Amino acid sequence: MPWINFTDYTKAQLLWNGVGCFFWFITYVVLVRNSFKLKFVEMPFFIASGNIAWEFVWSFCFTPSTGKFYAVSYQVCFWIDVLIFSMVFIYGAKQIDIPFFKKKKKKILVGITLIWLPLNYFFVKQGFDTSIGANSGYILNLIISLLYPIAYFRNNASNYSLIIAWCKFLGTGCITVSMFLIYPSNYFVQTLGIACFILDLSFAIVLVKKLK
User: Which residues in 53-65 are b (16+ Cβ under 10 Å) and which e?
Assistant: First the structure.
């Protein structure tokens, strides 16, 4: 596997995908910084486990066909996601207003993670995913995009970052462009990408108006 796979992918495909991943890297870094600062985590509680499970599977069980450089970037994001998951483990209950879930938050988080890990692994192993994890990644991304505004409206708007909102939107948006270029016939992932684009943009606009 070369560092960057120019044999199977064009420069435009790799560039759009790489820029999208970079915006997600910024999202992760700011998310960690704000979590330490505010003692509050933006990552929706009930999907944090799915997110780290996907990062683990694509960092250590499978290798994206885009090249070693992208594989290393997946691994870097996984270790940052470990910090995010830890913050969710500690402060995630602040997102929850149901007493039972709040009381059992740590057991629930561990339990959901143990479910997501084999789901992600066998989804790839049995051939349901693409060679870069697009199908499974966008399923999780859609859940994140759906849960984000739900968590937001239950919490203080000042705990949410415009940088994260816009970087998340731009990151997924750029990767979605690469999906249209790489998989022109994969209407499943294209539909998921458009749905995430609409949800993320709507949330960013709502957050701008609310903070103003």
Answer: bbbbbbbeebbbb
In the chain, what is the straight-line distance between the N-terminal and C-terminal CA atoms, in Å?
48
Is 33 part of any domain?
yes
Our measurement of the distance from residue 5's CA atom to the centroid of its chain's CA atoms, rounded to an integer in Å, reads 23
> pLDDT tens-digit profile of 76-93?
999 999 999 999 988 888
> What is the dihedral angle through the alpha carbons of 171, 95, 159, 78, rounded to the nearest 10 degrees?
-40
CA–CA gap between residue 152 and residue 134 (Å, rounded) = 26
Question: Total structural domains in the chain?
Answer: 1
Percent of the chain with pLDDT over 70: 100
Tokens of 101: 């879930």
Residue 31 resides in a domain: yes
What contacts 24+ positions apart, CB below 8 Å, involve 90-94?
A: 91/35, 91/39, 91/40, 91/41, 92/41, 92/45, 92/48, 93/45, 94/39, 94/40, 94/41, 94/155
For residues 27 and 166, the answer to whether their CB atoms sit within 8 Å is no
Residue 5 resides in a domain: no
6 lies in a domain? no
* Model pTM score: 0.90
Range of the domain at 18: 11-211
